[in-house]
Amino acid sequence: MGLIFKAIFEVENMKTESIKKSEIQQDWWIADADGQTLGRFASKIATILRGKHKPNFTPHMDMGDFVVVVNAEKIRVTGNKEADKTYFRHTGYPGGTKEANLSQMRRTFPERILEQAIKGMLPHNRLGRQLYTHLKVYAGSDHPHAAQQPKPMEF
Fold first, then answer.
1. Which one of 27, 50, 102, 130 is most buried, by most CB atoms within 10 A?
2. In this structure, are residues 99 and 32 in contact, taking their beta carbons and an 8 Å threshold?
3. pLDDT of 16
4. Can you give the residue ranges of every domain in the chain?
5. Are 91 and 98 in contact (CB under 8 A)?
6. pTM beyond 0.90, yes or no
7. What is the CATH number of domain 21-78+109-152?
């Protein structure tokens, strides 16, 4: 009987520690998308934005890092997605549905390919919208975030 009481007492006294906002440290990372596969690359970036790579991850807080993605125009896709994958958007007007395939998006807005893939992997709520602001995507290799001294990500 004493052993059971001791086990129940120990379980009741276990506490979950939650990190405070002042203890969160957000770093800057730079990732090169040249030659990377779209989905695999996007999932790694979403993990960093969410903060899941940190040992003190708290799901309901913005504790992710900032990520700068360069060379978004050189992202790679497998199979026949270049012609088959379609992107939909709506202008807001009646009959304003617009549709483009991946090759058209790559020519006109290459950043949006990665942005939409990563956005779909973040939570679909207020926290996800806040985390999405930490993502900076650029088509070429130039970016204006050198002052933040981003660390390179290895894949």
1. 50
2. no
3. 76
4. 21-78+109-152
5. yes
6. no
7. 3.90.1180.10
